[in-house]
Amino acid sequence: MSGAGGLGHAHAASPAPPPLTGRRRNGNVLFTLVLSVLMLLGAVVMALVLVASSAPAGLVIGVVLAALPVGPVIGAFLWLDRYEPEPVRLLLSAFGWGAVVATAGALLLQTLDRFVLGTAENWSAAIVAPITEEAAKGLFILLLLWWRRHEIDGILDGIVYAGLVGVGFAFTENILYLGSAYMGGDGVGPGGLGSAIGVFVVRGVFSPFAHPLFTTFIGVGVGYAVTHRGAARVLAPLLGYVLAVAAHALWNGSAFFAGGQYFVLTYLFAMVPAFLMLAVFATWARSREATMLTRALQDAAARGYLGQAEVPWLVRLPARRASRAYALRAGGPTAERVMRDYQQEAIELGFLHDRYLRGTAPVDFAERGTVMVQRMAALRPHVLFPPVAGGPAAFPPPSGSGPRGGPVR
């Protein structure tokens, strides 16, 4: 957008960013309210289920063993999220949603199916469980899309949020399985620590990625939808859900049908290749973000929103770390925090401007772009860039009285 409705006076703004509009503020309040209520209800339901399903010793063993794979799997998703780290509170919310809301919702739906429709156990595991569990997990991503769409800039964000929801779901589900294995009984073996460790090896060592893998199909669909127009906005999330259910059904079905004799084959020739393909795709998407951000920020710099010499310090991960380290040495913790905030605002601006360049900008892009540019302008006089790599000791603010060539969208 250009002309009177643009951002031509952004650099003259005061340090305080404009307040959120009523629509944006209401969306944040509703999202927080709905999330809080559902998390509380889910936590109560799952607490009752966990206490009722295992004796204290079984519950402790289940929690300890279920927690072991959580850190490495979460770390893998956070590694993908390094260019534009998502808010910690939302990442924790995604994990919590999977751990209590999705598990409670899926459990209630499956219990209802068992009592109302009387579905056999193997069919329930292979059909009902995938449908209900992926719907319960995917609902968090849809809530983000509905009320916090600005937090999802593309496919990688969708993968990260969906993956953490899946990790949370797997954590609680593993507690139930591990606790039951420790207690022993019909269908779960003799019990004891050996039985629990056997289940842990299968679920926590060889397949900790199962639930995150299923749900990332939904994340990919939602991430694709926010960067495209037309029918893709509806079809992509729906297709992602269908693929998530299909992968989940294949996995569960291989364990419950034909005596489980196809479980290992399914694991080796379906699940492992699917996981590797997703890992390669996610890594490619991460590297593609660097190229996209460089192009978008260079175009934004050409319009006067930042200096061209700043772009490498804002995009390249080693340079970002080096610039923060330099700011810490030169100006202390405050300067390091300013550098971190400036980099984050610039990356957010890069994602938004890229969507403008591709013709898929959100309807509130002008408002969001104005806020980002004003925040950068307020931070810029206090930013300390290193005295190497294409610039003087401290890069000056962009020349001229304001942005040129139209606003960032």
UniProtKB/TrEMBL annotation:
Residues 1-20 are annotated as: Disordered. InterPro entries: PrsW. One of its GO terms (molecular function) is metallopeptidase activity. GO terms for biological process: proteolysis. The chain crosses the membrane at residues 29-51, 57-78, 90-111, 123-147, 159-180, 200-226, 238-258, 264-285. It holds the Pfam family PrsW-protease. It comes from the Bacteria. Keywords: Hydrolase, Membrane, Metalloprotease, Protease, Transmembrane, Transmembrane helix. The keyword Thylakoid does not apply. The keyword ATP-binding does not apply. Coiled coil: none annotated. This is PrsW family intramembrane metalloprotease. It comes from Nocardioides mesophilus.
